[in-house]
Amino acid sequence: MPDYSYEARIDGCVAGVDEVGRGPLAGPVTAAAVVLDAACIPAGLDDSKKLTARKRDALWAELIACADVSVAHASVAEIDEINILRASHLAMERAVAGLRSSPDHLLIDGNMIPRGLTLPATTLVKGDGRSLSIAAASIVAKICRDRIMVDLAQQHPGYGWHTNMGYGSKSHMAALRNLGVTPHHRRSFKPVHNML
């Protein structure tokens, strides 16, 4: 389970940063930055992938109520133009910039600090399972991106985005072959590129 030990060792205000949506064939990549209030940390924070949808929703509501939360995206066009790694870093940079107050330090999930971030930062591999701030960011980013994909699923029925969230599931791949490529598909990703 993640804990608050990394945050406690750092002087000042710490933001956890995480992104979701690097792997899907469709939709934006989404990042969140979260500054927890040490006196009001919701119970049960964990890596978003380990939580049920209901638990994520409940924690999301608590985080919005008691933490400084910022969410940002990089679009499909940006992903295709600058590549998915750079686009996910761009989304992280935008999320940090959107916080109400500038943090003193960032805890970033992964092993790379986005080059556009000028604040002191520490990377944590599998950080969403180690740091409560990153776990919080993983939950917020996932909820927000999932909602976008559910909305896009209504505009483009048949691809199953409300359940596969744009990942290359069997039903999504079949729909790509049968229905074609939408404006929300990442053309730089091999399965989509090959169909074009």
Describe this structure in words.
With 196 residues, the protein is of the alpha/beta class. Helix content is 43%, strand content 15%. Strands 3-2-1-4-5 form a five-stranded mixed sheet, with helices on both faces. Strand 1 and strand 2 (29-35) form a beta hairpin. It is globular and about 55 Å long.
Which segments are poorly predicted (pLDDT under 50) over 5 or more consecutive residues?
Answer: none
Outline the biggest β-sheet: 5 strands, mixed
The structural class is alpha/beta
Main sheet: strand order: 3-2-1-4-5
Descriptive key words:
196 residues; alpha/beta; five-stranded mixed beta sheet; 8 helices; 5 strands
Task: Briefly summarize what is shown.
By secondary structure, the protein is of the alpha/beta class.
Helices and strands, with pairings:
Elements: H1 5-9, E1 14-20, E2 29-35, H2 53-66, E3 68-74, H3 76-82, H4 84-97, E4 105-109, E5 121-124, H5 132-155, H6 161-164, H7 170-179, H8 190-195
Parallel strand pairs: 1-4, 4-5
Antiparallel strand pairs: 1-2, 2-3
Helix pairs in contact: 2-5, 3-4
